Amino acid sequence: MKQNSQSREKIKKSSFSIVRFLSGGVLQEGFLTKYGGMAALIVFMLFFFIANRYTCLLKMREIDVLQNELRDLKIRSVEISTNLTGSNRLSEIEKIVEQQHLELESATHPPYILTK
User: By C-alpha distance, which of 18, 19, 14 is closest to 29?
Assistant: First the structure.
């Protein structure tokens, strides 16, 4: 009879219930001392992985912004280069000289190479 009542108590203690967990029965059994280190390690790793993911998302967002900015600057660079190439043509320079009424003319003779 005693053995029967002891086995019932073990069954009651070993079975998991929310009421026993909330009342603190888990702390009395030594469960926390047995698995507390592992639980703390798991919680630490969870925080570490969440923080790492958040940092990666911020970096990826920053990379996207910088790539968009770089693309815009490349387009602007091509526009400026095109404008400068067009304005450096001889015909464009002659038009500007005529518009500003400068008394300049194009050279009719090729340049001379001076030697010692």
Answer: 14
Could you give the CA distance from residue 99 to residue 91 in angstroms, rounded to a whole number? 12
Q: How far apart are CA 71 and CA 21, in angstroms?
A: 58
Q: 0.70 exceeded by the pTM?
A: no
Q: What is the DSSP letter of 108?
A: S
DSSP 76-94: HHHHHHHHHHHHTSHHHHH
The DSSP secondary-structure symbol of 17 reads: -
Q: How far is residue 45's CA from residue 39's CA, in Å, rounded to a whole number?
A: 10
Name residue 11's amino acid. Answer: I
pLDDT digits (tens, 9 = 90+) for 77-97: 999 999 888 877 888 888 888
- Whether 13 contacts 29, CB under 8 Å: yes
State the DSSP code for 47: H
The token pair at 26 is 């888990």
Q: How many CA atoms lie within 13 A of 24 on its CB side?
A: 1
